[in-house]
Amino acid sequence: MAFLDAIIQMVGIVTRVLITLVIVQFVIGLLFAFNVVNHRNQFLSSVYDAINRLLDPLFRPMRRFLPNTGAIDFSPLVLIILLQFVMILLDALRSSIG
């Protein structure tokens, strides 16, 4: 039981980190889009690129199934919703075994 609880906790941590990365990517993208921060800011540009490289393999399958809406990309929202479902399932699993 302790091993299963540890795995559930680790998956929960990874899920929360992914949700945080999606939100950070969104905020940095907004800062760039509204010229609050210039793209020449090397730190934010490198952070944004690194987050994009991490999240793109998760977004790519969703983008194939979602309709093309032009400039608005709904794949981050869909990913957050799916990760929230994972969190709900993990909480239910943890309460059922404990």
Structure notes:
The chain is mostly helical. The chain has one domain. The protein is 81% helix and 0% strand. The chain has three helices and no strands.
Outline:
The protein is mainly α and 98 residues long.
Descriptors for this entry?
98 residues, mainly alpha, 3 helices, CCB3/YggT
Annotate the secondary structure layout.
Layout: H1 2-33, H2 42-65, H3 75-97
Structural class, judged by helices and strands? Answer: mainly alpha
Straight-line distance between termini: 8 Å
Order of helices and strands: HHH
Question: What's the overall geometry?
Answer: elongated
Low-confidence stretches: none
Percent of residues in beta strands = under 5%
- State the total count of DSSP E strands: 0
User: Major beta sheet, specifics?
Assistant: none
Average pLDDT metric:
91
Proportion of helical residues: over 70%
Can you count the helices?
3
Rounded Rg: 17 Å
What's the structural domain tally? 1
Keywords: Membrane, Transmembrane, Transmembrane helix
Organism: Qipengyuania psychrotolerans
InterPro entries: CCB3/YggT (IPR003425)
Protein name: YggT family protein
